[in-house]
Design a protein that fits this description.
alpha+beta; 7 strands; 26% helix; Chemotaxis protein chec
């Protein structure tokens, strides 16, 4: 069971991480609005990047949905020819999830984070099979033209209750944390 406070905290942590890590420049706008359900607007070419944060009491999936198009490629590659779109985009997704992980470590000391992997968005229809205790989806617009969607899926193995204080701004540059 996840309390209302914990659900609100997961959402605030996600919003803060997405607004801090998905835009390439701190001056770029990042609008996040709720979606009715995961996978809305998905086409047959839509893909998702899946990242997992696991603790002793819950498993959180951060799922970032995208269509690889000119707008997305142009924004995340910024005319960089030395790496692929997928490599650049997965790095940004990993930074976003890493920011969530760092914030959650304040409340849950034993967390593990997966590496990102890419799947077809068709898998979103199976999220209910996980019997999530919290499932929330969002539409994300960066600079008005870069469109993504995100879903947070949290499955609890024990009661989860915490109130995240996301008021303090902590700047990091995406350091690699070694275990």
């Amino acid at each position: 069971m996840i309390t209302g406070h914990a659900k609100e905290s997961f959402e605030r942590i996600f919003r803060r991480a997405a607004q801090a890590r998905l835009p390439l420049q701190s001056s770029d706008t990042c609008e996040i609005v709720p979606l009715a359900q995961a996978g809305m607007g998905a086409t047959s070419d839509t893909q998702v990047v899946v990242l997992t944060i696991s603790s002793m009491v819950f498993r959180l999936l951060l799922i970032l949905q995208f269509d690889e198009n000119d707008s997305l490629r142009s924004y995340f590659l910024k005319d960089t020819a030395d790496r692929s779109f997928q490599e650049a985009f997965l790095e940004i997704c990993n930074l976003c999830c890493g920011a969530m992980n760092q914030e959650l470590l304040r409340y849950f000391p034993d967390l593990g984070m997966s590496t990102p992997y890419v799947l077809s968005a068709r898998c979103l229809s199976y999220l209910q099979e996980l019997k999530p205790d919290f499932l929330s989806s969002y539409s994300i617009a960066i600079e008005g033209s870069v469109q993504l969607a995100a879903t947070i899926c949290v499955c609890a193995d024990a009661p989860v209750d915490f109130v995240a204080d996301t008021s303090a701004v902590e700047e990091t540059s995406g350091e690699l944390e070694m275990f």
